[in-house]
Amino acid sequence: MGLEELLPAIAGMTWQHLVMIGVGLILIYLAIAKNYEPTLLLPMGFGAILVNIPLSSALTQIDPATGQAVEGVLNVFFDAGIATEIFPLLIFIAIGAMIDFSPLFRNPSLLLFGAAAQFGIFFTMMFATLLGYDIREAASIGIIGAADGPTSIVVASRFAPNLLGPISVAAYSYMALVPIIQPPVIRLLTSRKERLIRMSSANRNNKRISKKALIAFPIVITIAAGIIAPSSLSLIGFLMFGNLIRECGVLNKLSQSAQNELSSLVTILLGITIASTMTADRFIRTDTLIIIALGLFAFIFDTFGGVIFAKFLNLFRKEGNKINPMIGACGISAFPMSARVIHQMGQKEDPYNYLLMPAISANVGGQIGSVVAGGIILTLVPLLA
């Protein structure tokens, strides 16, 4: 009896499988040792190990005795939750229930950063088409820059399901690596004088926001988005529905469940299901490295767009009323991690500079902006293809 019969997994192991198992171990290390988005990176890392052991029953395999396919549990989860977009949309309900829009009401001008910081998405789309990707694939790659995993999954599953694995991993990895990626980009674009700018007027703005306004906001946004871009309704609608559950005041138990149990359960399933696409034959390819590099490019240019836009606005603002340019970087969708990073950067420069509230406002705007950007891409790309 040969090795193939006794230990078929070892006999079928290749260096590509070992590389992907190594990738899984790195993701687990980042989740546990560095605490980078552990709820996502740990399931993804463990799933990568699970699917890269040859003949793993977690994936669909052909039974040699009958010649029939035996469905793997991760393939079942993928077909039921990712291909149908159910998992990412349920995550949007949870995110919506977590978001408090009142800081944005107090600083509505900071919503503009949610638009400015999407610059990298469309810039990367154009660059990707020059590299030979078709418009659908380019759009799926560009959306990585939003640092919004669910939006990336929805766009990629519709336009480029063959690229879903590297796109999902890149989107969630860069979202987790915000504390590493954003600070050097911001320091490169700003002077110490700019990083010391205090936004005291924003911090003192504690006016009470009416309950009616907070309830009306998700409804109005959903209707407006539906009229302008009906294709965006599944993204924006689920996000705003989650927020309506939070703000309506009569569904507190459901709001807490959405923020905790729903978020935790779906995140675990989403992370380990994405790993079903992280097989060696799909991942160890030149295309994958290019996609990951383009995703980083998009992420950096989104940060660039937000910071430069803040510096541009300061040209028209009086001394004492200027925006700290670091706030512009919060226009990406990595909520609330980006806001915390910017606040910590401000505290390092000046321990008495409290940027958290304006940073949160811009970050909330970024969450809306990334979903709107995803909706625009879903609407326009089919017309251009």
Task: Please specify the SSE layout and strand pairing.
Layout: H1 3-6, H2 8-11, H3 15-32, H4 38-51, E1 61-62, E2 69-70, H5 73-82, H6 86-98, H7 102-106, H8 112-116, H9 119-130, H10 135-142, H11 149-159, H12 164-176, H13 178-189, H14 192-195, H15 200-204, H16 211-228, H17 233-247, H18 252-274, H19 280-283, H20 286-314, H21 337-349, H22 356-384
Antiparallel strand pairs: 1-2
Helix pairs in contact: 3-4, 4-18, 5-18, 6-11, 6-17, 6-18, 9-10, 9-20, 10-11, 11-12, 11-22, 12-20, 13-20, 13-21, 16-17, 17-18, 21-22
Q: What class would the helix/strand composition place it in? A: mainly alpha
DSSP helical segment count: 22
Uncertain residue ranges: none
Give the DSSP E fraction (strand runs of 2 or more residues): under 5%
Helix percent reads: 55-70%
Biggest sheet architecture: 2 strands, antiparallel
Shape: globular
* Average of pLDDT: 85
Q: Give the termini separation.
A: 55 Å
Q: What is the topology, as strand order, of the major beta sheet?
A: 1-2
Report the C-alpha radius of gyration, rounded.
22 Å
Work out the number of β strands.
2
- Oligomer kind: single chain
Order of helices and strands: HHHHEEHHHHHHHHHHHHHHHHHH
In short:
This protein has helices spanning 3-6, 8-11, 15-32, 38-51, 73-82, 86-98, 102-106, 112-116, 119-130, 135-142, 149-159, 164-176, 178-189, 192-195, 200-204, 211-228, 233-247, 252-274, 280-283, 286-314, 337-349, 356-384, and strands at residues 61-62, 69-70. By secondary structure, the protein is mainly alpha-helical. The relative contact order is 0.18.
